[in-house]
Amino acid sequence: MNATALGRMIRRAESRSRRGAEPCGMCGVPTGEEHAHLLDERGESLLCACRACAVLFPQESGRYRRVPDRRIRLTGVRPDDLGVPVGLAFFTRDAQDAVTAHYPSPMGTTRWTVEPAAWAAAVAGCPPLETLGPGVEALLVNKVRDADERWLVPVADCYRLVALIRGTWKGLSGGTRVWPEIEAFFARLAEGESCRT
């Protein structure tokens, strides 16, 4: 084993030993509670990233793209026009402008393709959607339990919401814990906080 590989192994062990610290997906150092994320285009996954690694990657292109941290409450979007059959969904756009809807569930996400004309109408009614970063940002819609919210968020927030639902859902209807957790998630969005779960 060479010195570089040994150094990486030691850094990974140190990362795991630090309580609550996620290791950077690029270099292995602890990232801290608040950290950036990178989208791995090939693996279609998110990596935690330390500040030093995050600044190396742009949001626009490449295998690894930095996930922005902007969160904007939106108006003018009609979720029913996008074909949302459920109360909670998020929408991502790829580099070819194809839009996929994702429905968080206790088993992960269910996906379906949004009709291009429906997405074009949504963008016409809500100009900030034009700037939705392909793969790294999402339109998040919440219509559960009388909520009526639409947000432009980092895709990492959507994955946190999926993890929250998977971790707290009980039985057929979700149980008593999942719904207050979802409400708290959106309350943190409204307060401008990170949506850590």
Automatic annotation (TrEMBL):
Cited InterPro entries: DUF5947 (IPR045991)
Chain intervals for the UniProt region annotation (Disordered): 1-22
A Pfam family hit: DUF5947
Positions with biased composition (Basic and acidic residues): 11-21
Name of the molecule in the record: DUF5947 family protein
